[in-house]
Design brief:
Layout lengths: L1 H28 L15 H25 L14 H19 L5 H10 L18 H7 L1 H7 L7 H16 L5 H6 L4
Helix pairs in contact: 2-3, 5-6, 5-7
C-alpha cells in the first residue's frame, strides 16, 4: 500500500513539473503583439465601436420620430461629412430637428381641443379608442402599423394618436371624423 502511494505521489510530481515546463516554453514562444507605429491612421477598435454606437443612437432616434410622423426613414445623411466627429454632430442635429417637428404636429392645438371633448388618451372602451376616439376602421386606414404593433389607439402615445389624425386630415378628411367636437372647437 505504501509503495502505491509513493508511486502516485511521484507521478503527480512529474505531471506538475511537466505542466510548468510546458507553460514556460509556450510563454517564451508566443510572439508579442506588434507595436503600433506613428503611421497608424485608424482609431483603436474600441473607439470605432463607440463612434458607431453614438451614430446609431441618433440615427435610431431619427427613425423613431419619422415612424411616428409616418415619414420615410433617413438611412444615411445626404451630405455626410467625412470627419467622424462632424458626422456624429450632424446626426445629433438631425435628431434634434426631427424630434422638435414630431413633438409639434401641424394641428396640435386643434387636436388638443378635440381631445378635451373626447376621451382620455388611454380610453380602452370600444368602439372608439384613445384620446381622439378613433374606431378600428379609422385606425386601420391611417395607423395600420401602430395598430399591428401596439394594438388599438388607447395603447399609443398622445403624439402617435395626433399624427394618425394628422394623416387623416392630410388625406382630405379634415376635422370631419369628429363632427361634434370639431364644431365645439370652431374647426368646422
Amino acid at each position: 500500500m505504501h509503495q502505491k502511494l509513493t508511486l502516485a505521489f511521484a507521478c503527480a510530481c512529474v505531471l506538475v513539473v511537466s505542466l510548468g515546463a510546458a507553460s514556460t516554453l509556450r510563454a517564451e514562444s508566443t510572439p508579442e503583439p506588434a507595436a503600433t507605429t506613428e503611421g497608424d491612421t485608424g482609431p483603436p477598435q474600441f473607439e470605432q465601436r463607440e463612434i458607431q454606437r453614438q451614430i446609431d443612437k441618433y440615427r435610431h432616434e431619427v427613425w423613431r420620430w419619422q415612424r411616428t410622423m409616418g415619414k420615410p426613414l433617413t438611412r444615411q445623411l445626404p451630405k455626410a461629412p467625412a470627419e467622424v466627429r462632424a458626422k456624429i454632430a450632424t446626426w445629433r442635429q438631425v435628431a434634434y430637428d426631427i424630434r422638435r417637428r414630431a413633438q409639434n404636429p401641424p394641428h396640435k392645438r386643434q387636436w388638443l381641443c378635440i381631445h378635451r371633448f373626447e376621451g382620455a388618451w388611454n380610453d380602452p372602451n370600444p368602439p372608439y379608442y384613445g384620446g381622439l376616439q378613433m374606431d378600428l376602421g379609422f385606425q386601420r386606414a391611417y395607423g395600420s402599423k401602430l395598430l399591428a404593433t401596439k394594438g388599438p389607439a388607447n395603447n399609443w402615445t398622445p403624439l402617435e394618436q395626433m399624427w394618425v389624425a394628422e394623416r387623416a386630415h392630410r388625406a382630405g378628411r379634415g376635422f370631419y371624423p369628429w363632427p361634434n367636437t370639431a364644431r365645439y372647437c370652431g374647426l368646422i
